[in-house]
Design a protein that fits this description.
Two copies of one chain form a homodimer. Chain A contains ten helices and 15 strands. Chain A has about 325 residues and is α/β, with parallel strands linked by helices. Chain A folds into two domains: about 210 residues, 3-Layer(aba) Sandwich (Rossmann fold), CATH 3.40.50; about 80 residues, UDP-galactose 4-epimerase, domain 1. In chain A, the strands form five sheets. In chain A, strands 3-2-1-4-5-7-12 form a seven-stranded parallel β-sheet, with helices on both faces. A two-stranded parallel ribbon of chain A has the order 6-15. A two-stranded parallel sheet of chain A has the order 8-11. In chain A, β1, α1 and β2 form a beta-alpha-beta unit. In chain A, α1 packs across α7, α6 packs across α8 and α8 packs parallel to α10. The two termini of chain A are about 35 Å apart. At the A-B interface, α4 and α5 of A face α4 and α5 of B.
C-alpha cells in the first residue's frame, strides 16, 4: 500500500459496514485531506453498504475481529505518520435478541471490542483526539417515565444494554487516564437504508418468506421511539463541534415522542410489500428476554446544544421502509 | 473427595482468601448443614488468612483463576447434589493503583471473573439463589456532595471503578435473564486484620522498610471514609435477610462521616510502630490516576433497612491498625 499519507487527519470508524457506520462514512468521506480507516468483521455488517467507497483513496478498509487483541502494522504505520483525530467506535453486537441466549455475543462483540480498540489506539491519542461511542437507551433498564441522562439506576435487563454500559464505564476511565475527550451517544432504535437487524429487517424477511403466517415477537403493543440514521449522524456531528469542557460527555439522542407500536410497523410493512398474511402475535408483552417494551426519551440536554430531531418515530419508520 | 454432600445449602465465596472473603468465611462456617465452596487464585489473597478453616469439613477450597473459563467437575458434582443458596462474588483486582498502569488487571480480575462465575453457575441457580456482589464507591467517579445510590452520572475515573460498574451491569442482566435476586453492595474503603492492599498495608510496609524517608502517595490531604470489615459483613448479612421485592438491590454501605485524612493515618501508624521517619508528601492531591481524593456517602437507603454503622472512619482505622 503506497498511499501518500502524512500529516493528515485520521478518522477511525469501527463497525463501518453497519447501518450507522456506512452512513457516517458517506458523510466523513466528503472532508478534505483525511484518511478514514474503516474496520469491520462483517459478522453483521455488509460489504455492499460501503462498496462505492472502497475505491476512494481516502478510505482504507480492514477486516478485523476487534474482540481479539488487535495487531495490525498497516494501521500502526498510518497512525505514526498522521494525527488521530476522531475514533468512532460503533462496532457491537447490535442484534439484541441473540444476546438473550448467548451472553458471550455481547461480551465479546460489544465490550471486548471497546476495551481492545482503546488499548490498541492508546499510544496515538493526543489531547485533541476525540472518541465517539454509540451507546443505547438499553443501559437504563426499565425506567418509569421519560428517561433523562440523570435517570437512575442504570440497571440494564439485556446483556446488550449491560455490555453497552460496561463499555461506557471503560471509556470513562480511559478518557480520564489518557486525558482525552469522549462523547457517549445513547441511541433509541435507529432505522435507515442499510439495516442489518431490528424490527423492519426481521419483519420484512418474514413477510417475503413463504410462510403462510406472520409471527410477530411480543404482543405487538411494544411502543418504542425510532430515529432515522441520517438525523442521528447529523446530530452527533453537530454536538461534537460544540464546546465541551468536560472529558466525558453523554447525551440521549433521538426523537422524544412516545414512539410507534410494533403492530403499526407490521401494517406499514404489509402495505409496502402488498402482501396479505395472517398475523400471529404472542401473549408476552416483551419481544424477548430483556426487551424494554415501552420507553420515552427526555432530550432536554441535547436540545440545550441547539439540536432538535425533526423526524418523529412514525416519519423515521416511514422513511426507512421506503428506502429499504 | 468423599464428602457426604447431599441436600445441603451451598455457599460460594470467590476471593475467599482476601480481607472480606476470609472474614465472611469465619462467619458463614458457623452455620449448620452447609457446604462452603471457597475460590481464590491467591494473587492477592493469602492462604494464612483461611488456614484455620481448611480442615473444617464444611469448607472446600479451590485454587482457580476465575478470569479464565471455568471448568471444574468437583464443583459441578457438589452443585448437582445440593442447593446453590448464596453466591458471594468478592474476587477482584482490589489493588486500585495497579490498574492505573495496566488496564487488563481490572478487566481480567474484576470484570471477567464476574462474567465467568455467572456463566459457570447459570445452570444451578434456582429461584431462591441469591447473588451478592462487592461493588465500590469508585463506580460513581468524582461526584460533588454526598453520594447516594441515585447520584448521577456513573462515570468512573479508575479502571477499578469502571470494571466494578461493568460487573454490576453484567449482574443486572444476569439476574433478569435467570430470574434470581442480586445484591450489589458499594463499599467505601474497607479495613481490618487480613489486609492485602490499601493505605494501612502500603504505609506499614514503607514504615518498617529500611528507607530513611516515608514517601506518601498524594499530598496527604485526601480524605475518605473507611469502614471495618466486621461491620461490613454484619451489614450485608443483615440486609440480605430483609424482604426485597426487586431483582436487583443496590446499597451504599459504610460509614457516612466525612472520612479521615491520609495524613492522620500516617501519624497513627508511625505512633503504632514507634518509628520516626521524615514524611515526604507529593504535590498532587490524588494518590494515583483515577484516585478520588474526597467523597462522602449518603446511607439513607441503607438506614431505612434498620442498619446503622457504629464505627466511624477514625475508629475503623484505629481498630484495623490495632489488629494488623
Amino acid at each position: 500500500m503506497k498511499l501518500k499519507t502524512k500529516n493528515k487527519d485520521v478518522y477511525i470508524i469501527t463497525g463501518v459496514a453497519g447501518l450507522i457506520g456506512s452512513t457516517l462514512l458517506s458523510d466523513l468521506i466528503k472532508r478534505k485531506k483525511c484518511i478514514i480507516i474503516g474496520i469491520d468483521n462483517f459478522r453483521l455488517g455488509k460489504l455492499e453498504f460501503i462498496k462505492t467507497f472502497t475505491r476512494n483513496k481516502k478510505f482504507i478498509l480492514f477486516e478485523i475481529n476487534l474482540n481479539k487483541k488487535i495487531i495490525n502494522n498497516k494501521i500502526l504505520n498510518i497512525l505514526k505518520k498522521n494525527r488521530l483525530k476522531q475514533i468512532w467506535h460503533l462496532a457491537a453486537n447490535s442484534d439484541i435478541q441473540s444476546g438473550a441466549n448467548n451472553t458471550f455475543a455481547d461480551l465479546k462483540n460489544t465490550f471486548l471490542t471497546t476495551s481492545n480498540i482503546c488499548n490498541f489506539l492508546k499510544p496515538f491519542v493526543e489531547k485533541k483526539t476525540i472518541l465517539i461511542f454509540s451507546s443505547s437507551s438499553a443501559i437504563y433498564g426499565n425506567i418509569k417515565g421519560r428517561i433523562s441522562e440523570g435517570s437512575s439506576p442504570h440497571m440494564p435487563e439485556s446483556y446488550y444494554g449491560a455490555m453497552k454500559l460496561a463499555s461506557e464505564s471503560f471509556i470513562s476511565a480511559f478518557s480520564f487516564n489518557n486525558n482525552i475527550k469522549s462523547f457517549i451517544f445513547r441511541f433509541p432504535n435507529v432505522v435507515g437504508k442499510n439495516l442489518t437487524h431490528g424490527v423492519i429487517y426481521d419483519l420484512s424477511k418474514k413477510i417475503i418468506s413463504k410462510n403462510q403466517y406472520l409471527k410477530v415477537l411480543g404482543n405487538g403493543q411494544q411502543r418504542k421511539p425510532y430515529s432515522h440514521v441520517s438525523e442521528i449522524i447529523k446530530c452527533m456531528i453537530y454536538v461534537i463541534k460544540k464546546k465541551h469542557n468536560k472529558k466525558i460527555n453523554y447525551y440521549n439522542i433521538g426523537t422524544n415522542d412516545s414512539g410507534i407500536k410494533v403492530k403499526n410497523i407490521v401494517h406499514l410493512l404489509l402495505k409496502k410489500f402488498r402482501i396479505k398474511k395472517k398475523i400471529i402475535y404472542e401473549k408476552n408483552d416483551r419481544g424477548w428476554k430483556g426487551d424494554i417494551p415501552h420507553y420515552k426519551y427526555s432530550t432536554k440536554k441535547l436540545n440545550r446544544t441547539g439540536f432538535k430531531f425533526h423526524l418523529n418515530s412514525y416519519l423515521s419508520i416511514k422513511k426507512a421502509i421506503k428506502e429499504y
